[in-house]
Amino acid sequence: MTLFDPEELHEGPRGPLVRVRLVVAYDGAPFHGFAVNAGVRTVGGTLTDAITTVVGHPVELTCAGRTDKGVHARAQVVTFDAEQDRFDLDGLVRSLNKLCGPAVAVTDAAVVEPSFDARFSARSRRYRYRVLNRPAPDPFRSRYAWHVEEPLSLPAMVLACDPLIGEHDFAAFCRRPKRRDGEPASLVRRVTEAVWHDDGDGDLRFEIEAGSFCHQMVRSVVGTLVDVGRGRKHAGDLLAIMRSGDRNQAGDLAPPQGLTLWAVRYDGWTAG
To answer: Among 31, 201, 220, 223, which residue has the fewest nearby CB atoms (within 10 Å)?
Structure first.
């Protein structure tokens, strides 16, 4: 695909449009999150600039989930509209991977129905969090796992997951967003899976899936579960913490580097 000179870019797409869906993987360490934010390097800003350069007109990205600073993605989904007459899907992927790599990679691309939306068409999101639980750190995993030196009780952490399943108000585990209309935002979410796995050599893996997540929910849940594993809290405390709606009752945020947006499910298709 031809890269357009900045002087050739026009204000917006002209003529018939196509809706483009990309699956994007990225290492979140060098970025200040996904959302476009003037003055800092973000995944969304990097992608938007690169796509604009390739397609020859500004685009507006929609993503399945806005990850925070330092959080990774294996299967982030984004959608945007492009001019049909000048659009080349294979060329787009090649060009984006040259412009954005190696920290950002487009792993799949398709032209989809105009009604498809990366955010609103998603049925669920799945996150994975890794904890390295052993005395010695591992420099080769430090960018992608939280090193916890003291021994953790995995059975206690597994048991503490049970109250999370189902539809609950997760205010105790979330940063409450500000709404323009002044009304409190709902923090009710439906969690369909929350489970720990032991992959050996101190590598613990937490998997959680829900229709959607509120801000910092997964990291707050992980921080609280690790407190259970350390013996600072009991598995039976989780239900009371959740019912309290008090963020101060939950544990501290787990650090961002252990968290990855792992998969996004849609009707008839899953990214990841």
So the answer is: 201
